[in-house]
């Protein structure tokens, strides 16, 4: 089974000139979903992880599954105005726009080992903003884990100094 067969390109979504990597076929297929989840877990290796941080929305697909496999908690990073309790914010740019991300202040304790997970690493703007949020809370970033990395956008250059783990490269 080839994961690439379950990822489709959608031209000009969400805006002109963007080729969108749609992973819903991979999520819909029970065997592929299970295998992708296991493969993402294996990418993490032997690290001890306290918290998996996933970003809204597509970091929520695999983030909690990874957390249970790693015996860790799950922390959502959400877009502006969605989190109810005390939080900190970070603005950022991504491949097709700009936005604000937020995290609850009490979600990570100082010195906790954190794995960041998202579906796609494109320009790295989103992941870099999440790294900044976690470090402002005193978290120790162990690695950034992605289902897909768009190599031609060089997103990992925005994540210098962090381990970047990606299952699929385009
Ligand atoms: O590396 P970057 O250029 O920052 O882009 C990557 C981000 O873009 C997508 O999220 P999007 O903001 O589209 O939100 P969604 O998950 O709610 O669809 C994707 O899920 C990543 O979070
Ligand atoms: N080309 C792309 N496909 C899917 N998700 C993305 N997030 C940022 N760029 C993306």
UniProtKB/TrEMBL annotation:
Stored Gene3D superfamilies: 3.40.50.2020
Give the organism's phylogenetic lineage.
Bacteria, Pseudomonadati, Bacteroidota, Flavobacteriia, Flavobacteriales
Q: Does the keyword Transferase apply?
A: yes
Q: What does this protein do?
A: Catalyzes a salvage reaction resulting in the formation of AMP, that is energically less costly than de novo synthesis.
Subunit composition? Answer: Homodimer.
Encoded by which gene? apt
Where does this protein act, in terms of pathway? Purine metabolism; AMP biosynthesis via salvage pathway; AMP from adenine: step 1/1
What are the BP-aspect GO terms?
Answer: adenine salvage; AMP salvage; purine ribonucleoside salvage
**What is stated as this protein's family in its record?**
Belongs to the purine/pyrimidine phosphoribosyltransferase family.
Which EC class is the enzyme in? transferase
Give the GO molecular function terms. adenine binding; adenine phosphoribosyltransferase activity; AMP binding
Species of origin: Aggregatimonas sangjinii
What protein is this chain from? Adenine phosphoribosyltransferase
- Keyword Glycoprotein (UniProt): no
EC number(s) stated in the UniProt entry for this protein: 2.4.2.7
Q: Which PANTHER family match?
A: ADENINE PHOSPHORIBOSYLTRANSFERASE
Report keywords, A-Z.
Cytoplasm, Glycosyltransferase, Purine salvage, Transferase
Give the subcellular location.
Answer: Cytoplasm
- GO CC annotations, alphabetized: cytoplasm
In terms of InterPro entries, this protein maps to: Ade_phspho_trans, PRTase-like, PRTase_dom, UPRTase/APRTase
């Amino acid at each position: 089974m080839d994961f690439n067969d379950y990822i489709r390109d959608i031209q000009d979504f969400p805006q002109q000139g963007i080729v969108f990597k749609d992973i819903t076929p991979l999520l819909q297929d029970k065997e592929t979903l299970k295998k992708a989840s296991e493969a993402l877990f294996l990418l993490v290796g032997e690290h001890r992880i306290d918290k998996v941080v996933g970003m809204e929305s597509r970091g929520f697909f695999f983030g909690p599954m990874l957390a249970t496999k790693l015996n860790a908690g799950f922390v959502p990073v959400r877009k502006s105005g969605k989190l109810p309790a005390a939080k900190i914010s970070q603005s950022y740019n991504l491949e097709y726009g700009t936005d604000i991300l937020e995290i609850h202040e009490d979600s990570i304790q100082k010195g906790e080992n954190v794995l960041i997970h998202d579906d796609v690493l494109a320009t790295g703007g989103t992941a870099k903003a999440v790294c900044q949020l976690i470090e402002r809370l005193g978290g120790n970033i162990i690695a950034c884990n992605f289902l897909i990395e768009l190599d031609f956008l060089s997103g990992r250059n925005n994540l210098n100094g962090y381990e970047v783990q990606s299952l699929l490269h385009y």
